């Protein structure tokens, strides 16, 4: 069974996230998502709208997501790759090169981001609508 691993906050889930997860799953048979905890997001200067538990529940409802694990620190990836016997590590290419150190343990693939959508764009656009 070919296992794929990716990480992210996945707040206000949108088609850019789903495109990434779908392509990641297509690279193997089992997709694990390392979901950023609320505390970890503080370190990323990200204030997620949905709590970790709710973001986790939403991800787990996606048919091609097989497992969701917490992402608590930047440096848990090697341990996760080994522990979960991961074959392929996948991220959007805004992270191009940032995780090449994992090539020692598994394949590392950066996929093109989906243009024109992001959680921050959603928040900004909704603010504009709200303010009229
Ligand atoms: N993504 C994408 N296209 C978009 C938006 C996001 O392909 N339009 C991808 C990102 O490249 C990332 C994943 O979706 O691979 C999740 O994005 P975020 O939730 O913004 O995650 P991020 O803050 O990049 O956290 O340790 C890694 C970090 O936890 C990644």
3D architecture notes:
By secondary structure, the chain is α/β, with parallel strands linked by helices. It is 35% helix and 21% strand. It contains five helices and five strands. The chain has a five-stranded parallel beta sheet. Helix 1 (15-25) links the parallel strand 1 and strand 2. The radius of gyration is 15 Å and the shape is globular. 25% of the residues are buried. The structure holds [cytidine-5'-phosphate] glycerylphosphoric acid ester. [cytidine-5'-phosphate] glycerylphosphoric acid ester (C2G) binds at residues 7-10, 16-17, 20, 36, 44, 71, 91-92, 94, 113-114, 117-118. Residues 7-10, 16-17, 20, 36, 44, 71, 91-92, 94, 113-114, 117-118 line the site of [cytidine-5'-phosphate] glycerylphosphoric acid ester.
Summary, kept brief:
The chain is built from five helices and five strands, in the order βαβααβαββα.
- The overall pLDDT, averaged over residues, is 96
Number of helices: 5
Oligomer status: single chain
- Shape label: globular
Radius of gyration from CA coordinates: 15 Å
Structural class: alpha/beta
What proportion of the residues is helical, as a percent range?
25-40%
Query: Which hetero compounds are present in the coordinates?
Result: [cytidine-5'-phosphate] glycerylphosphoric acid ester
Task: State the main characteristics.
132 residues; alpha/beta; globular
């Amino acid at each position: 069974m070919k296992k794929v691993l990716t990480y992210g906050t996945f707040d206000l889930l949108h088609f850019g996230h789903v495109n990434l997860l779908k392509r990641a799953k297509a690279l193997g048979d089992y997709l694990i998502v390392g979901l950023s905890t609320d505390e970890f997001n503080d370190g990323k200067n990200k204030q997620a709208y949905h709590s970790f538990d709710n973001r986790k529940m939403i991800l787990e409802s996606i048919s091609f997501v097989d497992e969701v694990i917490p992402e608590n620190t930047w440096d848990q990836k090697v341990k996760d790759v080994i522990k979960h016997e991961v074959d392929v590590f996948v991220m959007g290419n805004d992270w191009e090169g940032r995780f090449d150190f994992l090539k020692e343990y598994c394949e590392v693939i950066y996929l093109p981001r989906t243009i024109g959508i992001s959680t921050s764009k959603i928040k900004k656009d909704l603010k504009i609508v709200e303010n009229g």
